[in-house]
Amino acid sequence: MLRALTSGLRLPRPWRPLRTRSCASHGATGDPEIQVRALTGRDQGITEILMNRPSARNALGNILVSELLEALAQLREDQQVRVLLFRSGVKGVFCAGADLKEREQMSEAEVGIFVQRLRGLMNEIASSAVMGLIETTRGLLPGAGGTQRLPRCLGVALAKELIFTGRRLSGAQAQALGLVNHAVSQNEEGNAAYHRARELAQEILPQAPIAVRLGKVAIDRGMEVDISSGMAIEGICYAQNIPTQDRLEGMAAFREKRPPRFVGK
């Protein structure tokens, strides 16, 4: 169960527009489609990316994808970021998927380039949270890794069924199939999923950041290859973690029966 959190939660650091190298980081309304906020206090180390494109239900258009890629590139270099949360500024929707209205205006070459960038974005996020692959209902093929990630999550037969039918899933159905880890009852403010995600972020936050990062690499890369190659990747990641200060701190904390103080080195 989620613990009670008030809708009036206030944080000292405000949302800030993404600082891009160019000035073309705003949508047609002049408002930024991506904003970034670093949390403070007990949540220090958690950074949130807010998607805010209400006119298109946060559909992934050129500007939104560009800003997301730029945000991820900037945050990757920030050693203070331990956990990254994606959230929506549009009530009742997280992301409507690719912007099909925008894509309709593209040439075939432009579509190919856009799909490649979208696939790169999905690889950066490394997320398999899918509520429905409805591309076939629009005469399209899932092009952001859906035909590759979904079979690994569900198996080939069920993945084909979902893609071929374009079926939409409820949160409970997605959880039952293993597409999402958690399904929560919605609250009056419409942000129950965000609060659950933040609770999970708070659980991750105190863990050794290098070990978490290397664990993610081992899992993501290992899923792409056979088991023997995956074990080799795990061994490489394990070896990289051995000389870290955090590993020594973890061992010392265990020996001294105290909480560890990880520094990410």
From TrEMBL:
The keyword Nucleus does not apply. It is an enzyme of class 3 (hydrolase). SUPFAM superfamilies: ClpP/crotonase. Its EC number is 3.1.2.4. Keywords: Lyase. One of its GO terms (biological process) is fatty acid beta-oxidation. InterPro entries: ClpP/crotonase-like_dom_sf (IPR029045), ECH_dom (IPR045004), Enoyl-CoA_hydra/iso (IPR001753), Enoyl-CoA_hydra_C (IPR014748). The keyword Lyase applies. It catalyses: 3-hydroxy-2-methylpropanoyl-CoA + H2O = 3-hydroxy-2-methylpropanoate + CoA + H(+). This is 3-hydroxyisobutyryl-CoA hydrolase.
